[in-house]
């Protein structure tokens, strides 16, 4: 064999060895990638996709109506909001504020129907504020405490029926409404609502203008309270505002009319 043939065979042998090494390296890389993809979740996902008639390479891209994809933390936060948990304090706050606003305004309207003295209106309104706040606080305290006792007694019966194997009793008790918090919230809400007609009337000396300003201020406050309650409770705002406004107008009109009638009759 000639020297040229020997050199050529050596070159071919080197190329073959290099190709084999490259092939081994490429094969090892493919094996690692394949092992990473052949995990159990990937296998189960592909199996489920084939079972449902969906290609494993199928990709779904969600398209939102507003063109903006919501953030994950916002979705979790909104999904975890339990609006029923707001019912207890929301009911007490809205009811207390609306009751204070309507009752004190109606009381001042009734007094203003028979007397033009501003002192009489303010004194009647202040007395209504104090009496109403105390009444709301005591009533809410008794109501919530009764519910609390019923829930605690029910939890005790359930533990006894399960041979004291019930778990999480303290955690369940902490979720129960607090009577003192409910009473304080009702009293504060009533006072806030009652202050609106008092503040509206205290600086106006003319009787007719004072009555009109009180009615306008109370109407605006009724709309605000109705809107706030609707937003917090995720209910229709217009319907809530209309309902609260009409109810307040009816209370003031009835009180004004009956007091005017009785005052005119001089009973």
UniProtKB/TrEMBL annotation:
Query: Which cellular component appears as one GO term in the record?
Result: vacuolar membrane
**Record GO terms (molecular function):** iron ion sequestering activity; iron ion transmembrane transporter activity; manganese ion transmembrane transporter activity
Give TM segment ranges: 118-138, 182-204, 211-232, 244-263
Q: Which domain of life is it from?
A: Eukaryota
Its GO biological process annotations read: intracellular manganese ion homeostasis
Tell me what topology the record assigns in the membrane.
Answer: Multi-pass membrane protein
Name the reaction it catalyses: Fe(2+)(in) = Fe(2+)(out)
Recite the UniProt keywords alphabetically. Answer: Ion transport, Iron, Iron transport, Membrane, Transmembrane, Transmembrane helix, Transport, Vacuole
Reply yes or no: does the keyword Transferase apply: no
Q: Name one Pfam family in it.
A: VIT1
Q: Which InterPro entries match?
A: Ccc1_fam (IPR008217)
Intracellular or extracellular location(s): Vacuole membrane
The record's similarity note reads:
Belongs to the CCC1 family.
**Function of the molecule:** Vacuolar Fe(2+) uptake transporter.
- Spell out the protein name for this chain: Vacuolar iron transporter
The scientific name of the source species is: Mucuna pruriens (Velvet bean)
